[in-house]
């Protein structure tokens, strides 16, 4: 791309295996040669790995694998390494010999018969087929990752103004570099490379970069082109796309789910209609009204979203970073979600909903916001339809009683054979009872714990199936707005001759006094928590069996801080 081209030029930068790279850096290791996963092993091997180092990904392990999948794949790799080793006639050293030499950096004593040593260093493993492949399991440290992300963002600010940067996630940004290329006398590739070099020198973290003539193209250049390109000596991958090169190189690319915003649902619908690539979608959009494939067909399939899909099929994207910065949503919400470590029954789930609501209201008060609507969603556990008796070892779930007062488990521990409600399929293809969902309208804007808690508890009892075990909970404060705007707005009421307005005025005064007292208590709690920590002041319910507030106060985004 010509550095003097007046077209918009965008750069997308994605830090490579960010969490894993930070953990390697903290250990003085190279993420490109160190086998490491970021996961919390205390959550069992079913826990999702937040990141996998590039070295370990080379063995076919995806970036968001579950820990047991990593364990299985490493076992497979070691079996293959061992079979090749035995075929070569190698004789393993004695136990004493292995202990003697397993003292070097990145080398440990092997735990698998047939290998001399074990190592998590990819270079050592390549040079020594007699070494067992091993890896580091690093518990997540979210506060540390946020600190690194801030440091890296400040590096970007040395080159690009904040109004030309859009932060997409903790490890990914978009930049409009159009007006910086002449200033720095650089091409977009040169400027991106310089910023990545600066990040690498300061943090030891490398990156993948996409350059495009619009935000969509730079994202696709990064996600598809760069991530499948050969890295340079720094581990950096950079790719560029404009509308013409996009059509030339990617119209036939499969799978179509590699493209941004095209998920499995979109792909399934398109495949059913005989479309498998972005080129197919683009060609469909050019058909006439009498053709089988035409634009109207796409609108019938996807509604208004077809417009965006068609634009992206052609490589168009009119939205700029300035548009993103200027966007203000018509409505706002604050939510709190939680996936439980084990299935909870009716009473324990109610406790968690109370805890989450209490914290959500304090968040509203702290932000000086109010709401007039609460939304509650309860996701049920797959064990409700399972025959696995050991699903709840250590928990007394033998008798979960439904609202008709009879045992709904059918004699099987953790099994609801009497369930006749609607069943859905989760993202893993498993059958699960359809989630419960409901809305409570408060009738007024408020941030009162008492008012909101009463509404949520009534809503909970209304939508929950007491016979089912719960796994996921989400509480949302919808239609939130600044409390000052509500106080300033005028209230109008139709008067009548049969209401005692003097008595109502006294009731309102009493209510206002109670709310004022409650507000002072809320603000005092927030002040103490900010000064001494979130667990410095707790409520009695936070100490009950099954409560999660204390542990969640030590987390960021559901993971260890």
UniProtKB/TrEMBL annotation:
SUPFAM superfamilies: DNA/RNA polymerases (SSF56672). GO terms for biological process: DNA repair; error-prone translesion synthesis; SOS response. One of its GO terms (cellular component) is cytosol. PROSITE patterns: UMUC. GO terms for molecular function: damaged DNA binding; DNA-directed DNA polymerase activity. Keywords: DNA damage, DNA-directed DNA polymerase, Mutator protein, Nucleotidyltransferase, Transferase. It comes from the Bacteria. Residues 10-263 form the UmuC domain. Belongs to the DNA polymerase type-Y family. This is Type VI secretion protein ImpB. It comes from Agathobacter rectalis.
């Amino acid at each position: 791309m010509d550095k003097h081209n007046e077209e918009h030029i965008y750069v997308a930068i994605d830090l490579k295996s960010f969490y894993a790279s930070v953990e390697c850096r903290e250990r003085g290791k190279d993420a490109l040669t160190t086998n490491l996963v970021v996961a919390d092993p205390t959550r069992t091997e079913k826990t999702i790995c937040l990141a996998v180092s590039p070295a370990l990904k080379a063995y076919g392990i995806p970036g968001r694998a579950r820990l047991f999948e990593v364990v299985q794949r490493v076992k497979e790799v070691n079996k293959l390494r061992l079979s090749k080793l035995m075929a070569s006639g190698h004789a393993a050293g004695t136990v004493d010999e292995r202990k003697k030499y397993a003292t070097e950096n990145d080398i440990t004593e092997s735990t698998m018969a047939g290998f001399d040593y074990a190592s998590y260093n990819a270079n050592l493993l390549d040079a020594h087929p007699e070494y067992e492949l091993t890896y580091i399991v690093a518990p997540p440290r979210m506060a540390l990752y946020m600190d690194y992300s801030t440091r890296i963002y400040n590096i970007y600010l040395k080159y690009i103004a904040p109004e030309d940067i859009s932060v997409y996630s903790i490890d990914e940004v978009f930049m409009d570099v159009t007006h910086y290329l002449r200033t720095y006398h650089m091409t977009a590739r040169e400027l991106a490379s310089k910023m990545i070099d600066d990040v690498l020198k300061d943090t030891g973290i490398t990156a993948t970069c996409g350059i495009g003539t619009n935000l969509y193209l730079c994202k696709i250049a990064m996600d598809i082109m760069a991530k499948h390109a050969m890295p340079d000596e720094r581990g950096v991958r950079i790719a560029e796309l404009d509308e013409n090169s996009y059509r030339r190189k990617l119209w036939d690319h499969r799978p179509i789910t590699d493209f941004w915003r095209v998920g499995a649902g979109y792909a399934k619908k398109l495949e059913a209609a005989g479309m498998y690539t972005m080129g197919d979608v683009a060609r469909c959009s050019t058909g006439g009204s009498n053709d089988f494939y035409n634009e109207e067909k796409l609108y019938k399939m996807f509604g208004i979203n077809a417009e965006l899909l068609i634009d992206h099929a052609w490589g168009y994207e009119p939205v700029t970073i300035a548009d993103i910065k200027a966007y203000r949503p018509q409505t706002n919400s604050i939510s709190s979600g939680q996936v439980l470590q084990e299935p909870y029954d009716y009473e324990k789930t109610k406790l968690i909903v109370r805890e989450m609501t209490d914290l959500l209201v304090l968040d509203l008060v702290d932000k000086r916001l109010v709401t007039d609507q609460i939304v509650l969603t309860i996701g049920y556990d797959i064990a409700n339809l399972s025959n696995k008796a050991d699903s709840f070892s250590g928990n007394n779930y033998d008798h979960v009683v439904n609202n008709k007062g009879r045992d709904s488990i059918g004699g099987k521990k953790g099994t609801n054979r009497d369930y006749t409600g609607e069943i859905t399929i989760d993202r893993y293809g498993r059958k699960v009872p359809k989630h419960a969902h409901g809305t409570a309208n408060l009738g007024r804007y408020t941030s009162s714990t008492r008012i909101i808690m009463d509404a949520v508890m009534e809503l909970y009892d209304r939508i929950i199936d007491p016979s089912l075990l719960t796994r996921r909970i989400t509480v949302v404060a919808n239609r939130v707005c600044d409390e000052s705007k509500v106080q300033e707005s005028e209230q109008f009421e139709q008067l009548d001759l049969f209401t005692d307005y003097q008595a109502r005025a006294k009731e309102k005064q009493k209510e206002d006094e109670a709310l004022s007292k409650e507000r002072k208590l809320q603000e005092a709690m927030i002040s103490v928590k900010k000064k001494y920590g979130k667990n410095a002041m707790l409520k009695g319910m936070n100490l009950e069996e099954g409560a999660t507030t204390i542990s969640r106060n030590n987390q960021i985004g559901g993971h260890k801080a």
